Prior knowledge:
2 domains; three-stranded antiparallel sheet; 7 helices
Amino acid sequence: MSLVLGVIGFVWYLTGRARIGGFQAEGRRVKAAGVLLMLPVMLTLTLLNAYLPSAVQINAAETVRTLFIITMLELSAVCAALGCARIVLLDPPGSPRLPGLLGQLQREARLERLAYPQMGILPNPLVVRRPRLKRQPPRDVMTLAEAACYLGVREAEVLRLIDEGKLPAARDHDAYKIARSQLDALR
Length: 187
């Protein structure tokens, strides 16, 4: 797991760009997040090199215990790195303030979020907020698509009704114009 994050972090550090679903970022924040994602792999390799050779020389039980401790430390480091990288990149509402350089990068993310609220970045970058459409009153004369929406059927069904003569419609070049009164009578 930490190896995958390390590779992603290395790519982010080299390119300075990150793209996750609909979220995109670039610059210093992405490089810092890349370094944060590489830390668990570096920690794991350091611990393996430092403690595993001596544990192997003692006995198998000591080797298993050492591997278990290193794995737990790796898991903790992965969780901490993911959390800090998320805060540095997104600065979600309610997140703790980070110290030092990470805090500066977090403030940059906050200012960007406030400057571009239309981006719709939520605490989870994989969730996309869609704007709500205002419902407008139906027009007196509708197109084929508007008539289908008004009746709650597909456009093919409206075309079938026009072809069968059950729904009167005027032809305007390559489009149909349908009176709302005719649609109301059909309902």
